[in-house]
User: Which sequence fits this backbone?
């Protein structure tokens, strides 16, 4: 008996020394429901090396799924809580899994498995299909929400996400920034030297992702933001622990995109992110950068930045078993960084958000990929108010973009102020079917009504050369030439970019005013001058006469002035000329003609059997209280719909409720429909009676 025992011990030692001779550990089995989350906590064999670096310690669960395929899910280190694997079943049925350490199978010493009692995100992950987003379930996904970049005095992010879900929002965008403890690699000293990651930050993200799951929100997680790698815009470079001046390894911020150590550490962080939160359908997409155009590297070599995007997108796709979407963000949708990404995320800040969405949203989809505005807000306004939010929300959903524009300023308004404006929009999207109807196009919707209101235009050209020196301003037109003007009206220093004068050809039905708003003025000074029909005028400045107007003298730095210059214009056709005879630029933030345009206007989307629209009073969108104003009335001219009966529903944009239903008959190329009386704005949808 003793001899036999010794024999078995020797055989065991020989087998252990020749590890390949041992059979692989038996797989573990679970029956999972579709989109059910499973978390396994376990202890691997003793390991050496950095547990945060997958190149040294690569632990995975190899999961055999019901369709016969295999999914390799990375595990992650959670400090004293040991190692964990998180997995979401894409199909119902029996799942088998085993573990590997650096490619070799092993049996965990202890193991605890926790299953979620429900399908937390029952529609699955967000995918792209052509120019739209869809869930794994096949249903269309239309993002609606606002940014929640970092924690502020408005409250903890998880609680705010739950409030957003109750208001009907389904999307938010959050940064991995350091100032509220959410950047995994913003560490210094020994932790930075050892290439560790912050478990404290990781647990904050656990709470955020779980709150999104409970609330039905999809998150766009911004992995990097421009400040740490910019010396000019929102700069955090001086306190960046990777800065050589702080004991790091980067001599300049642009080295982030090419330095071998920076690339290795970034891949290490991204691999950990995939392991810890890649399981969750609540993560809509990984956003590689917030506004990468402000980094020093982008200012010097865009192609280098674009190659970094290519490489990191390829890494994420290779390592992500759940294949999340990948995006980035900038002020423009066409930058080279997007060439290998899943969708574009431009940002826009303008004084005239309605006109921008009317003109610009259609161009977002030229690449054939999904696109929607990830940030938007006012330009040149000291107050981010609910009036501007209301305008942009309703104008934004009446565009062919792949989602509603994402309001930025969560910290300028209280959650209650914001959410009461999102709720009516979310209800309309659900009840009208607008969010589930793909490939709607901008519809020409003419509004017939009496009266006039201001025409407000905002140049969108940014820092670009002027393409024209003559702009025709039509009272009822889209005025694309004015919108294309550069924001920066150049002076003598950059005369090659901009003519000294721009002529505006106007046609006033009654006497009024031509106004411009000057935002910021360059430190070298500028001199805006206005002429009417060739005669120079002394403008009113903020409503006060200024007979001795001499422009803006040089200053120590660029100066924010936010002043309105106005000249009176008689009825009829005239030429208003704007010059800058100063040395440098001024920001032409707004052109305002009042009264000038038809009082009522509209935006609409349609296909051959469906239309949704938003009708607004141009002169009443800015005032907070319009209760004393007489009700507006008019008619809309419907074109492009197939003949037949239609169910028409009128919608209260403030209270989020139906205020009228009727059946109308489309019998010819044009059909006039009376609009219910309203004071500020009203929405509607109409659908062929035999179609849904």
Assistant:
């Amino acid at each position: 008996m003793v001899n036999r025992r010794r024999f078995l011990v020797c055989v065991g030692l020989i087998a252990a020394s020749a590890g390949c001779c041992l059979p692989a550990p038996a797989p573990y089995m679970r029956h999972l429901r579709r989109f059910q989350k499973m978390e396994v906590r376990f202890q691997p064999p003793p390991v050496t090396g950095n547990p945060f670096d997958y190149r040294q310690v690569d632990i995975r669960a190899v999961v055999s799924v019901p369709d016969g395929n295999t999914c390799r899910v990375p595990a992650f280190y959670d400090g004293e809580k040991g190692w964990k694997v998180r997995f979401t079943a894409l199909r119902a049925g029996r799942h088998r899994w085993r573990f590997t350490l650096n490619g070799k199978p092993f049996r965990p010493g202890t193991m605890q498995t926790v299953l979620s009692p429900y399908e937390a995100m029952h529609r699955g992950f967000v995918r792209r299909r052509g120019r739209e987003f869809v869930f794994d379930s096949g249903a269309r996904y239309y993002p609606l929400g606002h940014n929640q970049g970092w924690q502020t005095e408005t409250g903890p992010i998880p609680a705010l996400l739950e409030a957003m879900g109750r208001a009907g929002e389904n999307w938010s965008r959050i940064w991995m920034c350091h100032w509220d403890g959410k950047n995994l690699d913003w560490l210094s000293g020994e932790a930075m030297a050892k290439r560790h990651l912050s478990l404290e930050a990781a647990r904050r993200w656990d709470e955020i992702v779980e709150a999104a799951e409970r609330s039905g929100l999809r998150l766009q997680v911004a992995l990097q933001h421009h400040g740490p790698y910019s010396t000019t815009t929102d700069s955090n470079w001086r306190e960046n622990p990777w800065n050589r001046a702080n004991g790091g390894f980067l001599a300049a911020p642009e080295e982030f995109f090419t330095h071998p150590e920076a690339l290795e550490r970034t891949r290490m962080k991204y691999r950990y992110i995939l392991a810890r939160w890649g399981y969750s359908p609540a993560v809509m997409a990984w956003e590689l950068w917030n506004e990468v155009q402000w980094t020093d590297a982008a200012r010097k070599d865009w192609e280098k930045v674009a190659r970094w995007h290519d490489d990191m997108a390829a890494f994420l796709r290779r390592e992500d078993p759940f294949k999340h979407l990948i995006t980035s963000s900038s002020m423009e949708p066409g930058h080279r960084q997007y060439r290998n990404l899943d969708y574009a995320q431009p940002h826009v800040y303008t004084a005239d958000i309605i006109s921008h969405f009317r003109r610009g949203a259609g161009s977002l989809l030229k690449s054939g990929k999904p696109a929607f505005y990830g940030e938007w807000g006012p330009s040149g306004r000291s107050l981010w108010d609910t009036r501007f939010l209301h305008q942009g929300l309703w104008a934004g959903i009446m565009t062919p973009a792949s989602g509603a524009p994402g309001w930025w300023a969560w910290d300028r308004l209280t959650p209650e102020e914001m959410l009461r404006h999102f709720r009516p929009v979310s209800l309309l999207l659900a009840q009208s079917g607008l969010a589930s109807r793909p490939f709607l196009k901008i519809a020409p919707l003419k509004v017939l009504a009496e009266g006039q209101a201001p025409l407000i235009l905002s140049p969108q050209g940014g820092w670009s050369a002027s393409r024209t020196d003559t702009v025709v301003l039509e009272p009822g037109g889209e005025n694309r030439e004015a919108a294309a003007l550069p924001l920066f009206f150049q002076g003598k220093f950059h005369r090659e970019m901009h003519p000294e004068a721009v002529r505006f050809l106007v046609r006033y039905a009654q006497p009024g005013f031509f106004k411009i708003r000057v935002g910021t003025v360059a430190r070298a000074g500028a001199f805006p001058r206005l002429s009417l029909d060739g005669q120079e005028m002394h403008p009113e400045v903020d409503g006060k006469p200024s007979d001795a107007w001499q422009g803006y003298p040089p200053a120590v730095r660029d100066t924010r002035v936010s002043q309105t210059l106005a000249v009176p214009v008689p009825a009829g056709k005239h030429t208003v000329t704007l010059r800058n005879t100063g040395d440098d630029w001024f920001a032409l933030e707004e052109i305002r003609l009042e009264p000038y345009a038809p009082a009522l206007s509209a935006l609409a989307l349609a296909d051959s059997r469906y239309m949704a629209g938003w009708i607004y009073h141009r002169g009443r969108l800015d005032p907070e209280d319009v209760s004393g104003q007489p009700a507006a009335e008019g008619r809309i001219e419907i074109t492009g719909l197939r003949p037949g009966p239609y169910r028409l529903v009128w919608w209260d944009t403030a209270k989020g409720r139906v205020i009228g239903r009727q059946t109308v008959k489309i019998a010819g190329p044009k059909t006039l429909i009376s609009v219910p009386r309203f004071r500020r704005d009203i929405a509607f949808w109409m659908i062929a009676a035999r179609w849904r």
Notes: The mean pLDDT is 90. The chain has four domains: 15-115, 126-439, 442-450+599-688, 452-598.
